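Query form — protein MetN, D-methionine transport system ATP-binding protein

QUESTION: What is the three-dimensional structure of this chain?
INPUT:
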Amino acid sequence: MAWDIGYFFPISLLPIPHSPLPLNTAKATLRLEQINLFTKLKTQLPGNQQGYPILQDISLEVFQGDRIAIVGSVGGGKTSLLRLLNRLIEPTSGKIYLENQEYHQIPVIQLRQMLVLVLQESKLLGMTVGQALAYPLVLRGLSKQTIEQQVSHWTEQLHIPSEWLGRTEVQLSAGQRQLVAIARALVIQPKILLLDEPTSALDAGTASHLMQVLTQLSQTHQTTILMVNHQMELAQMFCTRLLHLQQGHLFANQRVSEINWVELRESLIQAETQDDFGF
Ligand SMILES: Nc1ncnc2c1ncn2[C@@H]1O[C@H](COP(=O)(O)OP(=O)(O)OP(=O)(O)O)[C@@H](O)[C@H]1O
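ANSWER: The structure tokens for MetN, D-methionine transport system ATP-binding protein are given below.
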């Protein structure tokens, strides 16, 4: 796809970063040790001064190149786990390490160069699609040619047509916005990619294609991917490992060869039924 970034984003108008952010070359493994997350609600129960438990005693390790599906019934703590990993929120207790370095010792900007979170509702912040895709690369001080190559590569990979590049957020459907948000994360080639229900607004064909692109990405670049997904067939297609969160507890942490998908589906349906009817 041939397009000129200058058409969408006059480079001269872009902020020049004081020190360009390089693309990452470091390894990326994560370790969580006894993570607890409690949220203080205004209506706390008497005697429950800690607040409402969202995640409890989560310990796990994530290795480079892992493709992890995070599943569980609604409110199980899946999104909260991703938000913790991106430091949008802090744990109440416990520690998180990236490459053996404790999170608090890593400047947030450095952490987020390596690790990118794509939430379900991502905003283009008033930019066109072309501008939004180029912006993180401009911040990294890359050349115009490299930016155009990267954006072209990932828009092609995700089957994003060039007509979308001049559109703003309101001119995109929910599914189109979701694909653009994923492309914006992929252009910077993060070492760790955190995806919160990336296929919730996509049709079956596009969702399945996305799983193939992500699998290929992790195989060729050793990208570590953690993805929350309610669609078991997509999780099955994509993952090398599965985390099952149930009411804030890590109910299972299994390699793909250990997973009994039939039992897993049944246990998820059962948990949802219990949640719905308060059993
Ligand atoms: N900011 C917050 N304040 C209070 N409670 C919160 C907050 N964010 C999340 N929670 C609560 O934490 C629990 C876990 O929420 P989370 O969004 O992590 O679950 P989830 O597994 O991603 O759910 P879903 O599958 O529905 O997206 C829920 O009970 C939710 O109500």
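ADDITIONAL NOTE: Residues 1-26 have pLDDT under 50 and may be disordered.
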